[in-house]
Amino acid sequence: MKSTTIIPDTIDFGKVNSGEKLEMRFNIINIGNDTLVFSRVWTSCGCDGVSGEWYQKKYLLPNDSLELTYFFINQGSRIGKYQEYVHINSNAINKPYLYIVTKVQIIEKRTDK
Question: N or C: which terminus of the chain has fewer CB atoms within 10 Å of its end residue's CB?
Answer without folding.
Answer: C
